[in-house]
Specification:
Elements: E1 4-5, H1 11-20, H2 25-41, H3 46-50, H4 58-64, E2 65-66, E3 72-78, E4 84-89, E5 95-101, E6 109-112, E7 116-118, H5 127-130, E8 133-136, H6 139-155, E9 163-168, H7 178-188, E10 201-205, H8 212-218, E11 222-226, H9 232-238, H10 247-257, E12 264-270, H11 278-288, E13 293-299, H12 313-325, E14 330-332
Parallel strand pairs: 1-2, 6-9, 9-10, 10-11, 11-12, 12-13, 13-14
Antiparallel strand pairs: 3-4, 4-5, 5-6, 7-8
Helix pairs in contact: 1-2, 6-7, 11-12
The structure holds iron/sulfur cluster (SF4).
Length: about 350
């Protein structure tokens, strides 16, 4: 039998677990609806929430649901552009980070969450990669980042649009922790919990090919593939995982497993003199042929390797134009929260001002 914190239970799974124990389906659904509303959006602690359950259901919930693992907000850094980097402390004293990003258009706030404490993929431009993997986060700890951010958002709700986008682009490689990530997505997209649209949830990966079939089968959330270069030698320098799954294997996996009607974001972080030339754009165009994609170009943020820096704006524009001229949807994404170390590749789990 499965026992897990309430926050980690996809509502449908918990309803099934209750009905397996003899609770009537309507009563199980009603109880989960009541408890989920109190727990997720109202932010009430689990013992208080459990007290709301009908007497016939509460003993089953008490057995199925383990006590919550607390996630404590340790730091909240506001950047000049309105981005907020949130540092949470786990029950075992690990530091993980999430980033609240105000919408450029003013329509939706985006929350970037971590899926692991640290990361084992060691991309040289990324602060998280320097620390190595500490451990996977549970689905409850992923959902708890949304709970914590939601509480902060409520405190300033008059001035900010609600959190409507969730991106797994914080610490960790989500496909290395796929089961917990899929459960977290099932919670945040369920009407009884957070009710986010799956199309508003994006999971970023370096391309763990062995997990792509399970990802596409398990969720309708968007996939963002951190390609960065379409040439194995160049990509291997930027993404060590490329030694295991080269660009040809990545493309083949997408061709074989991407469900009909879905597309993927292809992320290209641009580094001056490394992957920003016309020949790099042309290699990318060849790789993209036949794939339903949208390309995001991300001028690099300052990271741990001082030789990996962003190109100038003209170079970025030329790269984008080459893609646009070939009919590829390509957007330049500008960084958020750089001044508080909250932009892509900058999440280190350290205190600001700590030595590198
Ligand atoms: S870029 Fe992503 S996969 Fe690479 S080390 Fe950083 S967190 Fe891990």
């Amino acid at each position: 039998m499965t026992h897990r914190p309430f926050a980690a239970w996809p509502p449908d799974d918990l309803i099934h677990a209750l009905t397996d124990r003899g609770v009537r389906p309507g009563q199980a659904r009603s109880a989960v609806r009541t408890l989920a509303a109190a727990f997720h959006r109202d932010g009430r602690p689990w013992p208080d929430v459990l007290a709301l359950a009908p007497k016939t259901v509460a003993p089953h919930l008490a057995q199925l649901c383990l006590p919550d693992r607390p996630l404590t907000l340790a730091e909240d850094h506001a950047a000049a552009d309105g981005t907020r980097k949130l540092v949470f402390c786990t029950f075992d004293a690990l530091r993980i980070e999430a980033v609240l990003i105000p919408a450029d258009s003013g329509r939706r706030t985006t929350l970037c969450v971590s899926s692991q404490a640290g990361c084992g993929r060691a991309c040289p431009f990324c602060e998280t990669g320097r620390s190595g993997l500490q451990r996977n986060l549970g689905a409850d700890e992923i959902v708890a980042q949304l709970r914590g951010a939601w509480a902060l958002w409520q405190a300033c709700r008059g001035t900010r649009p609600p959190i409507g986008n969730l991106v797994f682009m914080g610490m960790g490689e989500p496909l290395d922790n796929l089961a917990e990530v899929l459960d977290a997505i099932a919670v945040v997209t369920h009407d009884l919990a957070w009710g986010l649209s799956a199309r508003r949830v994006t999971v970023s990966t370096v391309g763990v090919v062995s997990q792509l079939p399970a990802f596409f089968a398990g969720t309708r959330a968007e996939l963002a593939l951190s390609l960065h270069a379409a040439d194995d030698a160049k990509r291997g320098r930027l993404v060590p995982a490329n030694r295991r799954w080269g660009v040809a294997a990545l493309k083949q996996a997408l061709q074989e497993h991407l469900p009909p009607g879905r597309d993927v974001f292809v992320e290209v972080a641009l580094f001056a003199g490394v992957n920003d030339g016309p020949e790099d754009a042309d290699a990318l165009l060849v790789w993209l042929q036949g794939l339903p994609v949208r390309v995001n170009l991300l001028p690099a943020n300052p990271g741990p390797d001082p030789t990996l820096v962003a190109p100038d704006a003209d170079t970025v524009r030329r790269f984008q134009k080459r893609l646009l001229d070939a009919g590829i949807r390509a957007m330049v994404r500008h960084p958020h929260g750089r001044d508080v170390g909250g932009a892509c590749g900058q999440l280190a789990g350290k205190r600001l001002g700590d030595p590198a």
